[in-house]
Every structure is written in structure tokens, then in C-alpha cells.
Design brief:
mainly alpha; 235 residues; two-stranded antiparallel sheet; single chain
């Protein structure tokens, strides 16, 4: 894994069962992430008639699952990191309450971080982190979203000025496991506007959004119910 992590570059290479806090016990390899243990599939019981390919498939499945789980943990940690960086910069700027000071501190910090950690910490990147902290101000919501959304998802959401629209797409991403390409297509296709949620009074719309946040499975039927007889198309 590279020791340089920037917004535009996130590299991961699975190395061995002992890397990144992993541990090996008996035949099970369990990777310790920042959240909890990852349950691995049970190994197939080997018999004298077992095929060598069965062993290979079992081991490959373990490695692929560990890779995927590790990548998710890294994406989550990086997204949270960028939110924390943005929050910290904003705190310093709000304390001074001077626009010129803000420009100066971001430029200086960008130069220092680039010298220390390499590419990916330019002024534009730091500005996006500050926007992230401003537009998603609730740390609990950020912690939840970071489990499903990557930084690339967040970058697609930041240009959306309407907070309700932005939160709607973020929650749909989380529940439907959209790729960045799918998210971009849904925004371009004005999915939010077609649900009718944008036409509801503010408080009622917020109630509907809170209902989405409370879901743990596909919100398709719920979303369609926001506007009777209105098909959303594939989500």
C-alpha cells in the first residue's frame, strides 16, 4: 500500500495474511479492520476424493473477499479523513473570519502537505474537503455514508447546491450501492426532480428524507411512493 494517499490517488495492493493488522488462526484468515472482524466463508471439508481445484477456489475466495473488505475499509477511512481535514481547516478560517486569511492558509497548507505527502493535496483538493465538511456537517451521517460512498461519489455530490437534493442522492447511493457512473447518470437524468420530493414543503420533504435514512434495504418502492404513478425507471 502506498504511504501517500491523496484525493486523486488511492492505491491498494494485497500483500500477505500478516499485513495491515491481519492475523491467521488455523485455517481461517480474519482481517481486522477499523470497524470489526470480517467473517470469512467456511473452508470446504477436504476428503481423499477432493479435487485440487476445490482447494484453489477456496483460497482464491478468501483472498478476494479479504481484498474487497480491505478496499472498503480504506475507502471509508480516506473519506472520513478528508471530512476531518475540511472540518479542521474551516474551524481555523471561521475563527479568523477573514477571507484573505482563508486564501493564505489554504495556499500555505497545500504547499506544506504536498511537500510532505506528495500529489493530491493542492488548493482545489483542500477546497473540496472544506465543501464536504460544510455541506455534510453531521459527523454521524458522514460516518454512515462513508461505509458505502467513496471520495469519488462525494466529489459528484458537492456541486449540488440544494441540500435536500444532495442528501437524497447520497442516501440512494448508500442504499442502492450505486457506482460513480450510475450516480452521475441519475443526477443528469434528474431522478430527484422526478420523484416529486423537490415539490413538497420543506418540513415534509425532510420527513421523507429521514425515512430514507432509516431504511436498510432498497428504497425503490418507497421512492416511487413519493409521487403516485410516476415511474423512476431503473435505479
Amino acid at each position: 500500500m502506498s504511504d501517500v494517499i491523496g484525493p486523486s490517488r488511492l492505491c491498494f495492493q494485497f500483500a500477505s495474511p500478516t499485513c495491515c493488522g491481519g492475523r491467521q488462526s488455523g485455517r481461517d484468515f480474519r482481517f481486522q479492520s477499523t470497524q470489526d472482524f470480517i467473517l470469512m466463508p467456511k473452508a470446504r471439508k477436504l476428503t481423499p476424493s477432493a479435487k485440487p481445484s476445490d482447494l484453489f477456489e477456496d483460497i482464491r475466495a478468501l483472498i478476494e473477499q479479504a481484498r474487497a473488505a480491505t478496499a472498503r475499509a480504506i475507502n471509508s477511512a480516506v473519506t472520513l479523513l478528508y471530512w476531518q481535514v475540511g472540518q479542521r481547516i474551516r474551524r481555523d478560517m471561521l475563527h479568523e473570519q477573514r477571507a484573505e486569511y482563508g486564501e493564505q492558509i489554504v495556499a500555505t497548507l497545500s504547499r506544506q502537505l504536498t511537500e510532505e505527502f506528495g500529489r493530491g493535496w493542492n488548493k482545489a483538493a483542500l477546497t473540496r474537503m472544506m465543501q464536504f465538511a460544510e455541506r455534510f456537517s453531521d459527523p454521524k451521517i458522514v460516518a454512515t455514508l462513508s461505509q458505502q460512498l467513496t471520495w469519488s461519489h462525494v466529489v459528484e455530490l458537492l456541486p449540488l447546491k440544494d441540500s435536500l437534493q444532495r442528501d437524497f442522492y447520497a442516501e440512494m447511493c448508500r442504499l442502492e450501492n450505486w457506482s460513480v457512473r450510475t450516480l452521475r447518470a441519475k443526477i443528469d437524468g434528474m431522478l430527484f426532480e422526478r420523484t416529486g420530493l423537490s415539490r413538497k414543503p420543506g418540513e415534509l420533504a425532510e420527513q421523507e428524507l429521514r425515512a430514507l435514512r432509516g431504511l436498510t434495504s432498497s428504497p425503490l418502492e418507497h421512492a416511487r411512493g413519493l409521487r403516485p404513478n410516476q415511474s423512476l425507471g431503473p435505479v
